[in-house]
Structure formats: structure tokens, C-alpha cells
Amino acid sequence: MQARQEAPAPPQAPERPELEAESAQARALRFVWGAGKLAFSLALTLLGLLVVTFFIGRVVPVDPVLSIIGDRAPASTYDRVYRELGLDRPLVEQFWIYLKKILTGDFGESFLTKRPILDDLRRVFPATFELATLGLILGVAFGAPMGVAAAAYKGSWIDQTIRVLCLVGYSAPIFWLGLMGLLIFYANLGWVSGPGRIGIAYEFSFQPRTGILLLDSALQGRWDVFRNVFSHIILPACILGYFSMAYICRMTRSFMLHELSQEYVTAARVKGVSEARIIWRHALRNAAVPLITVIGLSYINLLEGSVLTETIFAWPGLGQYLTNSLQNADMNAVLGATFVIGIAFVLINLISDLLYRLLDPRVRRRS
Amino acid sequence: MLHFGRRGKTWIAAAALAAFAWSASPSALMAATPPDTLVAAWSIDDVISLDPAEVFEFTSSEIIGNTYETLIGYELEDVSKIFGRAAESWTVSEDGKTFTFKMREDRVFASGNPMTAEDAVYSLVRAVKLDKSPAFILGQLGFTAENVEAKIRQTGDYAFEFETDKAYAPTLVLYCLTATVAAVVDKKLVEEHVADGDYGYGWLKTNYAGSGPFSLREWRPNEAIILERNPHYAGAAPAMARAIYRHIPEPAAQRLLLEAGDVDVARNLGPEEMAALASNPDIRIQEGVKGSIYYLGLNQKNPNLAKPEVRQALKYLVDYGAIADTLMKGRVRVHQAFLPDGFLGALTETPFSLDVAKAKELLAEAGLADGFTVTMDTRNTNEITGMATAIQQTFALGGVKLEIIPGDGGQTLTKYRARTHDIYIGRWGADYQDPHTNADTFARNADNSDEAAAKPLAWRNAWDIPEMTKEADAAMLESDGAKRAEMYLSLQREHQQVSPFVIMFQEVEGIALRANVHGFVIGPSFNDNSIAGVTKD
Fold this sequence. Notes:
The complex is a heterodimer.
Chain A: H1 2-6, H2 12-59, H3 64-69, H4 75-84, H5 91-103, H6 117-152, H7 157-171, H8 174-188, H9 213-219, H10 223-260, H11 263-270, H12 275-305, H13 307-312, H14 318-327, H15 331-359, H16 361-366
Chain B: H1 6-23, H2 26-29, E1 37-42, H3 58-67, E2 72-74, E3 82-84, E4 87-92, E5 98-103, H4 117-130, H5 136-139, H6 148-151, E6 152-156, E7 159-163, H7 170-176, H8 187-191, H9 201-204, E8 214-220, E9 224-229, E10 242-247, H10 251-260, E11 265-266, H11 271-277, E12 283-298, H12 308-315, H13 320-327, E13 332-334, H14 356-365, E14 372-379, H15 382-397, E15 400-407, H16 409-417, E16 423-429, H17 436-442, H18 457-460, H19 466-477, H20 481-498, E17 501-514, E18 517-518, E19 535-536
Parallel strand pairs in B: 1-10, 1-11, 14-15, 14-16
Antiparallel strand pairs in B: 2-3, 4-5, 5-7, 6-7, 8-9, 9-10, 11-17, 12-16, 12-17, 13-17, 18-19
Helix pairs in contact in B: 12-14, 19-20
């Protein structure tokens, strides 16, 4: 007993701060390593995007000089503009010059709008962001519960109805849906406003700050403007939302069916857990992890691919800007817009990763 | 199995209903346009600049026409009647090379600066030196960046001289000065924004320095162009305080907006939409003949198309009347000469119509009795694609298999200018109202080599015509109006028969307006379209 009493205490007390210090240092290192990896991956993604876009842009059969000078200018004017655009230099040199400019924050000027690309993007991106975000919110708000319901009532009339609705949303041309929407809800019923972002009456009395008009009008307390903007955005957002709802709903149904066939669900049922609890608490929580990827991809699609909706609804957004620039070989604008989409893609992926960790303890443990 | 609580259901339903009811309330929707504002729905994505020295597109030409003043103008009903706009009068020297202009003294720019000869000289010199797309309109008169300051010179506060390199037909010189490139800009204002000796181009391409009935308030690319009444305008003040051109690219959306009263004018309606609106009592259709023509260009590098009999045969394989009346529903009218109706010396004879037997006979003479296959580069717009499909069907009747290659404007034009097409279906608008503008491109080809400096339509179709080029040059220099008209008539008759151009139609611009809107003027060129006299009941 004595000996035991006199035995020296294990040196835990002095070691613990050291261990903690090591662990803090390791954590910091891990964080720096992670951030570095992220920055490197971001830079590599963007560089890859720029390289591909730049070289594709140079081989498309559209002459950018003609887009600037038109059909009739003499050869001397053509040659001058050709040189001014730097097209007389080797492709690699052209790309290198462009890259150096980008690194200094100079994205160049669009020859279609005659404005700096950054100014253009500041104007068109908020319009698309606002529309795509509202579209996605609607898509998720309706798509996920409908997918759950379709899986829960598999084979019933509810499932069949939802599947038909999704099929229409997924396969009907968005152009046609948009026009039908305008015809019914704008022209015939008068429930919503027509194409455009804001009514003529507010063109001169309202000064947006961020370019996200719903936010701007709310921040300025201009509820009359908010209502007007809402009446303009709701129909295109519903059309986009319907499209993404169809995708999200189909995927949710599929994920849920997979989860509901798992043994843990059978075990829960045997234990007498209520069906609602099994679906909402257990199966949906597991299905939510892959669903995050689906929602992220859907969002990216809406951000860059809503050209037709933007055309029908005269929405001055990124999709229309990019398409118009591409058709006229306005490569500075195409590269600038691609850059923004690339950043959005990386950010959305990053957010998806963070949400994985939040929802899936296995991912948390691995990292 | 799956339950929303009763309260949850109620909340969801209530929220959805409230959102719709709130957004659909009358104050939020506000359908009618303000009584002092003209709102037009138009596809304005062709606007790439608002500097008169650079503007050459349809939409921007109309904007410049309503916001700037040119030196010379012409009567829209009879374009042969020329009058001074910013210029009060002019004289021509005996050798026919020097024009002396006297400016009006009552002109004031929207900025409040008075307009003098210094502004006019500056504007012309600036346009030549900047050398943008339309600079050739002045350049063809002998002005270069090196000589322009010596050739266009101020001789008094309100007088200046304009010296050309040759004694051109006086009307040619004066018509060139009706083009938007000769609009007078406010020198003082522009000079305040000069950077690196750019003549203020970096600023003026998105801003304004004119004296027209309206001033430019804002251009938001692919969104809107907003004009405001210019309080300093020397002419009658417009009734509209402002005009808003909204970018609505889709014709069906334009129609819905017009019917709902959210816009006053729809500018890009197709034949179908126009026909559908014709019976609506709230809508009025207005038409105006334009100086644009639709044609097929047959590349002479293609050995089949280079045969004179084939060129003739294809002119008999187009059903001109059916396309104009049925397909285009009056948006074009049959016209088969390179000068549009309304121009000095325009030929209005239409010797060709669909005649399959005659075409087959000609093809047999060319050794192509079994027909041949040929491609056509076709811009993917509704009207061009529609025409191309109709032509494909009638060509087939004669044994000519036409393969349509669709592409957007940039693609087809790039190929056309590289002379790698077989057939190109195109639309050509006159640059100014003098006959030389179209003779220069359809009937002149000074150098047919691949390295040629000038690339007129005759060159693009590899049509080598040294003799016809001389005839066109002689007509350009003829100062006697009647004799000149006769020269162009003769040139067109020859051209009509032998050229590799199947000239088919002249454009008729149609717009749809709310019935309470009056005074919109459709002129022969887009810069003649005027909203200065628009009123609303």
C-alpha cells in the first residue's frame, strides 16, 4: 500500500498541455493544408475552365472582328481591329496576356456592350442569382416532399400523379412552358406581371444597390416595389422551379425507395416506430445526403442554363449574356461569365461538402 | 402514412394564396403605360455602341436618328427632295469638288452648348480618324486620316468647306451626309472626356452628345434604352417626355405585352403574330417600305453555279409571289433589281417568276439535265429559314437538290466573306439613299483576287466584272440627275439577267401599336424611323 502510495504519479498533468499544444498545432496545420488544397483545387479548376473556354472560343467558326466592325467595313479597318484584338499573335501568347490581365483583376471589355466585363457581370449575375435562387427554393420546397410522398405511397394514385407531373416538368420544353405560363397567368388571368424585372413606373423612382431587386426593395422599405418585383419574378421562378422540382422529386423518390428497403427500416417497423417517424426522421435523413448533390447540381444548372427562360421573360441575366456573347465571339465576355460560373460551381460544391459533414457523421469522422 | 398537420396545411395554403393575391393586386401589376411615355418592345441586342462614328446597326441607327441631327436630311415620302438639317445651305464649286456649307445658327446641343461649324468639322474629322465601321461612307469620297483635316476645314463660325477627291455626283455627296456617321456631336462636351487621344470614343460609345429631339438618358445592354425629351431641341418639342425601348427578344412575348397594354409598340412581330393582331380593335398595324432587299448570292467558284444558264435557271425556280403573300404575309414585296424601289433610277420590272419548264430547259443547255446538288448557308432567323425552305421545295421541282446549312449570323457571314459557300441567302440594307450604295456592292468588283482590299457582294460571290465596274464608276460621277438615273436603269437590266444574284424581295417593315398611339414614322432607313411626333389619346 505504502509502495503504491509512494509510487510516482504518471506525468499526466505536465504532458496534457503539450499534447493539447500539439493537437492545436496539428489542427492549424490541417486547416492550412486543407485551405491550401482548396485554393489549389479552385485555381486549377478555374485555370482548366479558362484554358478550355479560351481555346474553344478561338476555334469556333465565328469571326470576332466581323462582330465588331460589321459586314461592310473595308479591309484596312478589318486589319486594324484584328491587330487591336491581338489576334495576329500566337494563341498561347494571347492566352498568356489574358491570364496576366486577369491576375491583376482586369477582365477586359466586352465589345458588344462596350463596358468592362466586371461591370457587366455585376449587372447580369444578380438578376440570374435572384431568379435561380427563388426557382431552386420552389423546386426544393415542392420537389423533396413530393418525392417523399411518391416513395411512401409507391404504386398508389399519389405516386402515379406525382410521376406524371415530374415527367411533364422534366420533358416539356421550358420555352413552351414559359409561353403557356405567360398566356395563362399574365395575359388571361392577370395574376402576374409580364416579361421584365420591374414595372416601367419604377424605372425612374427606384435605385437598386445590390441588383437583387427583392432584397434591395425590402432593405429600402419600398414594399410597393417589392410587390411589383415579386409579381414579375414569380412566374419565371415557378417555371424554373417546376423544372428543378421534377428533377429533385424523381431523385428524392429514388433515394427514398432505396432507404425504405434497408434493414434498419424493417427493424424500426418491427420495433413499432411510427411510419411518419421512419420516413421523416430516419429514411429522409439518410436520403438527404445524396440529395444535397442533386440540389447543388440543380442550382448550378439554373445559374448558367436558364437561357430560354431569360429570353421569354426578357430577364437580363447571365445565361442570355453568355449565349449572346458566344454567338458573337465576344470572348472576353464568354471567359468572364465562365469564370463566374466556375466560381459558383466550386462554392456550391464546397457548401455541399459542408452539408455532408453536418448530415453524415461518417464523413465527419473520416475528416 | 404521411401526414401534414391540419395547421401546416392551412399555413401553406394561406401563404401561397397571400403571395399570389399580394403580387396580383392592381397596384403591383399596373398594365397601362404612362401617358407621356412611349414604351416599345424591341429586340435591342444588336446595339454595340451609341457613338455616331461607330453606329451601323438597325436599332442603334434609329436611336441616333432620334437623338442627333445630321447635316442634311431628305423628305421621307420622296427621298429625292434633299434639305438642310443642321446645315442651312450649301454651294458647290465649279470643279464639283468643294462643297461650302453654312450652318444654322439656332442649333443648341442638349448640354446647352451652341452648335457651330467647329462642331460639324470636328464630327466629320473625328469619324474619319476613328475609322469605325461606317467611316467608309466618308472615306469613299477621298478622305483619309492623313488628309481629312486639310480637306474638311472651318472657314467661319458657321461655315466650313468639304473637299472631295473627285467631282462626284452632288447628290451622292449630300446623301452621304444624311447618314448617321455624319451626325453632329458636341465638340466641347466630347473633348471633356478624351482619353489617350481617342476623340472621346471611350466615353461617347455609351453616352450622349447630340442635339436631336430626344437625349439619351441610359443604355442598359440587353435590357433597355431610355430617351428623354431634349429641352434645347430647335424643332417642335416631342409630345412624349420620354421613350423606353425594352429588350423583349421573343416576338410572342412582345405580342402578349402589347395586347395587355404594357407596351405601346411591338417592333419584332413575325407575319403570324401580325396577322393574328390585325382583327384586334385595340391594336393598329403600320407598315413602311424599307430600303433592304433579300437575295441569293451564287458563288462563282462553284463550277455549276458559274454557268450563265444555271444562274438564269435558278431565277426561274423561286416562287416569288407565294413567298411574299403566303409565307411572309406582306412583310416583303417582290422586287428583282439591286436598287430598292424609291431610289433614283430604281428598276421595278420583275421579269422572273416560277417557271419550272423554262428552268429545266436552261439546265439542260448547261449540261445539267439531271439536276445537281448544292448547299445554301442560311441564317437561323424565322424569316430567312422560312424563305430557304420554300426555295428548297421549288428548286427540287427543277431537279436541283438544295441542302440547307443553318447557322447563326456570325457563322454564315464568316463563311460568306471567306467565299467558301455555294449559295448564301441574305438581306442587304442600303447605307444611304444614293443609288451608288447598292451599285457599289452588287455591281462593282475592282479586284476579284482572294487578297482584295474591298469585299463587296460581287467579290464575295467571286463575280469578276471589270466592265460593269467601270459602268458603275461612271454613274457615280455623273452630275446630271436624269442621265444618272438612266445609267442605273441600264446597269440594273443587265445585272438582272446575268448576275449571280437572285434578287427576290424588298422589305416592308411592319409594327403593331396600341390604337391610341399616333405619329410613329417609319422611314426608308432605320435612322429615319421617328418617334418625335408620337402622341397618345
